[in-house]
User: Fold these one by one.
Assistant:
Number 1:
Amino acid sequence: MDEPGTIARKSQTPTRFEEVKRVGSPPPFRDVLCAVDGSRGSEEAIRQGIALDGPGTRLSFVAVCEDRGVGLAAQADLGEHRARSALDEASALARKGGGHPSTSMLSGASVSDLLLAEAADHDLLVVGCHGGSWLGGVMLGSTATQIAHRAEGPVLVARRTADGDDFPQRVLLATDGSPGSWAAARTATCIAEARQSELRLVYVPGGMSPARYREVLKQLTVIEKATGYQPRVVDKPGQVAERITGSAQAAQSSLIVIGRRGVKGLRALGSVSERVVHRAPCSVLLVPPGMSRSSRPNG
């Protein structure tokens, strides 16, 4: 058995990933909810939500008109007319690709509260990222930051990529071999199957126990069995979040898939998953240890 940090690399990665295409691979999620608001970040969320759509997937778009103040001082950050226009544009784009989305419009004082409540009935929530630093996002209370911090289910924080309609072409699975990382590993594998994506695995060996290392090896076996090739592995020691985001940058990854431990409150603000969300050069999919009721990876 190899020691931690010395995973043997087989040269099984095909030159073209179409060579191992799985015909009829099910979509990674069965019920996708995508938040729209007419912004550039929202446009990316729409595109990526549609990309993860597939046969048997229910795709829904939701816009929230955020009401602030009362009486004559009342105002909405996203007006009803703009919200309806954003929903119509998203729906038209999805139908152009053969989808049959539903739309809904909500109104209230807290966008994040309403989206989280709505997401409880879906397998995946997709939100756009409007930029800014991690600390700045927390202090300013951006919607994406609050949702990433509080969500119970899987959340995709969408950033602009060069994939076009082929998102995600390159997926990076971040794992630490913990029990909670298995949901992320299965989800990344499912996405790679459905989208014929290149899949890489990154872990940071410093301080990793032999038991955790064995779990990483098991995850590699599961991925290879499902996709037909062993993913490339990045296993350099260092600061965990920096190694993950640096690996994504070097590989020009479209999507990082990472598990979250479900830590709440101030402790969560310093978690690896949340640091990755706010520092990543690409989209990030946060996967909790227990997937939502009907999503395929937990089945």
Number 2:
Amino acid sequence: MREHWIDGHLDLAYLAVNGRDMRAGVPDDAPHALTLPALREGGVRVALGTIFTELGGPATEAVAYRDSDDLDGAHRAGLVQLEWYEAMERAGEVAIVRTRGDLARALRGDGPMGVVILMECADPIRSPDEVAWWVARGLRVVGLSWGHGSRYAGGNARVGGLSPIGRRMVEALDAAGVLHDASHLSRAAFDDLFAATSTRVIASHSNAQALLPASERHLTDAQIAAIRERDGWIGLNLYGRFLADGRRATLEDCVAHALHVARIVGGGRVGLGSDLDGGFGRESLPAEIQSPAQYARLLDALEGAGFAHLAGEGWRRGYAHANLARVLEASLPA
């Protein structure tokens, strides 16, 4: 029986507002891999769909805003993506996951694919007082910063910890029951977040820094252990540059990162956060995983590498969806 999936990180709205027809199929010779039909074909029943905004990005892009002082610009860039998810829900293409019941229905396959809305960089939230408004619209997971940083926190490409307003933002997110995503935080911001909150934390799309030592983008072993202590979850990123250095990534590289992370965090706290062609094409994916329909190859490769010894019985179901479902169930409102 083929496992169904939760994909922990997909830039669905970003791709849509930048011109991709997310309701179309994907021809075999297409340069991209990700659309809604492709996800359904691959058995993806739930995705953490992002609101991704790009600080300092090209003014022609709907997701871009000037800088962290451009509060209204960042808000507009985030809102246009939220509105796309809402439009897709009205069209019956997706169901926004707001509650545990919504998650359970989506995992059963009762209706369209479920989308848990994840904000990748919190700048669209103009102040901590606005958190409740976003949560009422469906926001359930937040990463305080993208790589370039935000007014709330440093990013993996910009040094700095939490700002004073960032600490207030953490308090507001905690009060609203929003799950934290640490994938793009700077080292200092990661440490500050863990000092500022006692709640569960995930890294939706992060690999092992120990295997790519030059990359600030990945998690150190100490950070992986910190997520373990919070009973969090870590998703494997399929972007080739985050799997291998200077060559085409392979399924073997995926297995190496997954095993390294699981040996520290535990086999029940890992899964897939593919980031599938979010700003890159099929040529930047592992050669053996060119579409969601090929996600099962990852499970087969992990089985061959002895992953069951780390995770125990039922590990395939856990890796594909149940590990992340457990964390989401604990954070979503009843």
